[in-house]
Amino acid sequence: MKVIALSFGLAASLSLAALAKTSGLPIDQWIARQSPISIKSIEQNINPAGGAPGAVVASPAPSYPDYHFHWVRDGALAFLTVLNIYRAASDPSRQQQLRQNLLDYGYFSASVQTTTNQLGEPKFYLNGQPFTGPWCRPQNDGAALRAITLISFAKTLIINGETSLARANLVPVINNDLNFVKNVWNQPSCDLWEEVSGQHFYTLMVQRRALLDGAAWAEFFGQNASQLTSVAGQITTAILKHWSADKGYLVATLNRTGGLDYKTSNLDAAIILGILHGHTDDGFLSYTDPHVLATAKALLSVFATKFPINQVPGVRGVAIGRYPEDRYAGSNFNGGNPWVLLTAALSRYYYLASSEARKNGHPADAAAYKNQAEDLLLRLKHHAPDDGIWAEQIDRVTGFMTSAPNLTWSHSEVLEAFTARALAGPP
Ligand code: NOJ
Ligand code: NOJ
């Protein structure tokens, strides 16, 4: 008995020691440990205390009241990840709970649509009322992302034989968003970083995907989708104008109408987010497209020299920020930092590029992209907090978590990188 207690105690203290050394774990063990923490964190940020069911708080941290809101963008991205978790779940009671969360998100979305006739409203109080203080608005990516998530969820309901539920509760919300996107796509709006007004690559990419997903969806119901596809075609043309032959990368914003004017490079990790969140499997700007690869490379090289933590010898991979001129550090504007979600997104991008290259019969390229993806994930592991709770940013000097703690979007983007890694197969 004594021996058992002793060895049990030993095992417990050993696992505590292992817990404290997150960054030293082999990558597979780290992923196995981090995944459930990120899933749980997202679920805890859903249905926040005092909020409406289906709302998601961007960050619940008491020290960051500015993040105690439901952003349309963050919410849609979080629920896309929840949907993936739901599809992978096997336990019936767990499935039931995730399905309910997704349905609540659908009801919440329907309700916020009625609080404003302007579907470009970026953020809402957790009770579903629009935030009316000064803000960079409209943000026309949000409704597109919401449509993408809800269409995807509706498809799952239909596969599960719940077509009438999808029709009654999701179709009207989806149609409102698609109509909005169709009407506003060529008007200037505020970018996803809430800083610049103009025409943005990211916004156009997710708008295009929403309309194409919507067209496929409408056809499924026997409706005419030609208007949706024709607008998507116009958006395609607008997106291609973002290639700068001079600079050698895709640029974030064209036709700026206001907001920050110090983003002189126009090089932005939002391009990679646009490639990921706007992906439609139709071959347009696919992961191995030379324009996309060139932009990913430009981001790697600009941030490699930008942040002190990227110069520390012996650490693989590059921590990725928003754009080189960024100044936003969460609680001050003393200089931008690398972001968890962007380092994860670039890693995910390279895993997907690797899978695509392999599928297209280019094994050497596939290996090189996977190596790059792995480096980026190792970089993230290096800065991973021991409790697994990702903040928004990584301090560019100390390498510790900084800015809004427990950011929902950080967790979801990290989980998506893990999924892309699993799909890419063994190294
Ligand atoms: C808060 C926004 O969310 C952030 O992205 C931005 O950099 C600052 N406001 C400054 O506009
Ligand atoms: C600031 C980011 O710039 C913006 O994209 C995000 O929606 C908010 N934080 C909330 O996470």
Summarize this structure briefly:
55% of the residues lie in helices and 6% in strands. The protein has 427 residues and is mainly alpha-helical.
Please describe what this structure looks like:
The chain is mainly α and 427 residues long. It folds into two domains: 1-45 and 286-427, Glycosyltransferase (Alpha/alpha barrel), CATH 1.50.10; 51-243 and 262-279, Glycosyltransferase (Alpha/alpha barrel), CATH 1.50.10. It has helices at 2-20, 27-45, 72-88, 92-114, 142-159, 163-169, 171-184, 201-220, 226-240, 270-277, 290-306, 340-359, 363-383, 408-424; strands spanning 70-71, 123-124, 189-190, 196-200, 243-244, 249-250, 253-259, 393-394, 401-402. It has a three-stranded antiparallel sheet with strand order 3-4-7. It has a two-stranded antiparallel ribbon with strand order 1-2. The protein is globular, with a radius of gyration of 21 Å. 48% of the residues are buried. Residues 1-19 have low confidence and may be disordered. It binds 1-deoxynojirimycin (NOJ) (2 copies). One 1-deoxynojirimycin (NOJ) is lined by residues 193-195, 328.
